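Thread: Newbie trying to understand structure tokens

Hi all, I'm a second-year student working on a class project, and my supervisor (Dr. K.) asked me to get a predicted structure for one chain before our next meeting. I've only ever worked with sequences, so writing a 3D structure as a token string is new to me. If someone could post the tokens and maybe explain what I'm looking at, I'd be very grateful. Here's the chain:
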Amino acid sequence: MKGPRVIYTRNGCGHCQRAKAMMNNDKMRDMLGVGKNGATFEELDFDTNPPTGIELNGYNMLPIVVIGGKFIGGADELKDLIDEITTAPLISSSARR
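---
Reply by user tm_fold:
Sure, no problem. This is what the structure looks like when written as tokens:
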């Protein structure tokens, strides 16, 4: 998860809150090497700062999660990505046995 991490949100959006919570949990902070008070992402209001220069492939829901300039998806896709990253070391270590 290298490069800038941005979440485009809107006030009152439950899925936006979920995505922000996932990015701020302790496991994610450890993975990103961000201290307890460091920022794991930049939050931008979708209505005042809509994404530009990012291919969204027709995606029209919030949140919009962008990592390293690449569109990831919303909260569900972010969860899938986090699960994939956190289970990959477990899978590779068990394959070496």
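A couple of things are worth pointing out once you decode it. Strands lie at 5-9, 42-45, 64-67, 70-73. Residues 4 and 48 are 19 Å apart (CA to CA). Feel free to ask follow-ups in this thread.
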